[in-house]
Amino acid sequence: MAMWRPLTRIRHDARPGRWPSAEVASASALFRPVRIGPATLSSRTWVPAMVPWRANSEGDVTAAVLDWYGRFGRGQPGALVVEATGIRDMPSGPLLRIGADRFRPGLTDLARRIRESSEGTTRSFIQLIDFLRVRRRPNAERYFAHFLVVTDAHRGRLGLNDASDEEIRRVLVRLPRHRLVQVLSPRELEALEYGARERVTDLHVEEIRRLPETLPALFAQAAVRARECGFDGVELHFAHAYTMASFLSATNTRPDGYGGSLEQRLRLPLEVFKRVRESVGSDFVVGCRMLADECIDGGHDLDDAVAISGALAAAGMDFLSLSRGGKFDDALSPKVGEAAYPYTGPSGYECMPSYYSDAQGPFGRNVAACARIRSALRAAGHMAPIIAVGGIHNFEQAEHVLQSGQADIVGLARQALADPDWFRKVRLGRGGEVRLCRYTNYCEALDQRHREVTCELWDRLDLDKSGVPLAADGKRRLLPPEWRP
Ligand SMILES: Cc1cc2nc3c(=O)[nH]c(=O)nc-3n(C[C@H](O)[C@H](O)[C@H](O)COP(=O)(O)O)c2cc1C
Ligand code: SF4
User: Cβ(261)–Cβ(225) under 8 Å?
Assistant: First the structure.
């Protein structure tokens, strides 16, 4: 599937900056502990959630999942957020799940592996996600033969009032696009060109209408399991293209008291949080990931995000991890047989900006928004730590974000994928050995195709060495090479 590219394409290379000596690192803000609700992080470093596609089709923790997170744990970041993990007990492909008690043994092993591999240095959080159905893009023959519900509206627009359903289907499949635009509704056209996608506003679907009744308990049960499995906390996924972000979105027009005004859009997220908190108690970290800006036409902007973060912090969230964009609304049309991917359009670009960028570049693109949200929270007396993420890769950059009060914790996602030992190397004064991320988004392309995520900087190294686990295609190693100080 193609990716959207900014019109101005300037190449921006990640730079190492000046790496600190061990003494400078130990006196830095970055390697100072920070309180996060009832817990303490050993440093202000954070690996945000990244789906590596290592679970099996039942959503279980596999040996590959344990090895993956164990490898990140060895780098000893302050916090490691386990990938988006589904809270429902329903099949969702090789995406980790926490929606039933049978997942507990695997998840317990996972929390233990992070604790042991990091020698107790890293706090483990797990990201809890709910998402609605997104169907693959059908070919036109299949769509018109099986999926489209033929109505009198189609007959009227085609001027074929007496035609049977079958005749209408046969006409539609031969119609050029400019005519289809006139005959199909916007949702029907979307189902044809993108694949059908459920929305939180589809109140005619009972399951979606009842989300405000069902989701608080599902999130709460998942959070209780996370606690029982030994995680240090949960991150409620209120960001990107998924259910909770869709409730918060300015595009949410639900007429049932859970959409429309900002207050009503906040209602379900606050009810979910309240139920989770009541279920896990106050001595377990509960925070969320949310958008500093939806980055879509008609979406919520930074002003709204200030209000949203204020309400969530006032409710007692232990942290707010700020991302941006990543929406279906402006995603590109996928190939036939593939599903739309919310990181292909302009808002997806804002979420994971790559090295070909506009003049602003991909590095620290979300930091100004984090700073604005943090200062508004502090002015209102809310102390929830803010985690800034997006193109952060060198020490000077990370330290500046903290020293200037733009955020309390710095998240490195792709940089940690490129080199999970970044944290330990920098702390030990060995920053010169860091493998700098190139922000090519090779990893993101693998994520998009649901293939095991790896990094181009290390996945071809020593492929013939014995004991190196390989991806299903046999051409890439699954884990970064070891580094020992
Ligand atoms: C392969 C991959 C998988 C990701 N999966 C998730 C996810 O499960 N949940 C989430 O909130 N963000 C996810 N993200 C987004 C990252 O957490 C992060 O916000 C983004 O990559 C920008 O940070 P960076 O510039 O440090 O990489 C993913 C990113 C990548 C590259
Ligand atoms: S593949 Fe590696 S170098 Fe490229 S963006 Fe991903 S982590 Fe960075």
Answer: no
The finding on whether 455 has its CB within 6 A of some atom of ligand 2 is yes
C-alpha distance from residue 30 to each of 77, 82, 387, 424 (Å):
11, 21, 12, 12
The conformational region for residue 359 under phi > 0 = left, psi -120 to 50 = alpha, else beta, is alpha
Q: CA 287, CA 290: separation in Å to the nearest integer?
A: 10
443 lines ligand 1 (CB under 6 A): yes
Beta carbons within 8 Å of 374's beta carbon, 6+ residues apart: 386, 405, 406, 407, 408
Question: Half-sphere exposure of 479 toward its Cβ, with a 13 Å CA cutoff?
Answer: 21
pLDDT in tens, 161-174: 999 999 999 999 99
Do the Cβ atoms of 215 and 236 come closer than 8 Å? no
Ligand 2 centre and the CA of 438: distance in Å? Answer: 6
Contact in structure between 66 and 34 (CB atoms under 8 Å): no
What pLDDT, in 10s, does the model give residues 74-109? 999 999 999 999 999 998 888 999 999 999 999 999
| Separation between Cα atoms, residue 26 and residue 21, nearest integer Å | 9
484 CB contacts (<8 Å, ≥6 apart)?
A: none
- Asked if 17 and 394 count as a contact pair (C-beta separation under 8 A), the reply is yes
Domains of the chain: 15-135+212-323+382-441 (3.20.20.70), 140-193 (no CATH)
H/E segment holding residue 47: strand 45-47
Ligand closest to Cα of 361 equals: 1
> Does the CB atom of residue 400 touch ligand 2 within 6 A?
no
Kindly give the distance from the C-alpha atom of residue 83 to the centroid of ligand 1, in angstroms, as a whole number: 9
pTM check: above 0.90:
yes
Cα–Cα dist 238/244, whole Å: 5
Q: Report the atom number in ligand 2 closest to the C-alpha of 454.
A: 1
pLDDT means per 10 residues, the chain with 485 residues, are 74 94 98 98 98 96 98 98 97 92 98 98 98 96 95 96 96 96 96 97 98 98 98 98 98 98 98 98 98 96 97 98 97 94 94 91 95 98 97 97 98 98 98 97 94 97 90 92 92
